[in-house]
Amino acid sequence: MNPTQSFVSNTASAIVESGSTLAASEVARQTGEAPSKPGIAKATSELISQMAHRDFSEVGQYATTHLAPAMLSAAIGLFVIFIGYMVAKYLMRVVSQPVCRRVDETLGKFVGKMVFYLIMLGVVGAVLSVLGAPLGGLAAMLAAAGFAIGLAFQGTLSNFASGVLMLVFRPFKVGDFVTAASVSGRVNEIDLFTTTLDTPDNRRIIVPNSSIAGGTIENMTHHKHRRVEVLVGVDYGADLQITRAALQRAIDNLAEHMIPGEGRGGAVVLAGLGDSAVQWKVRLWVAAKEYWPLNELLIAEVKTQLDAAGVSIPFPQMDVHVKSTSESILTGSTTPISGGAPVATRIRPTRRAADRLAG
Question: Where does the Mechanosensitive ion channel MscS domain lie (predicted)?
Answer without folding.
Answer: 156-222
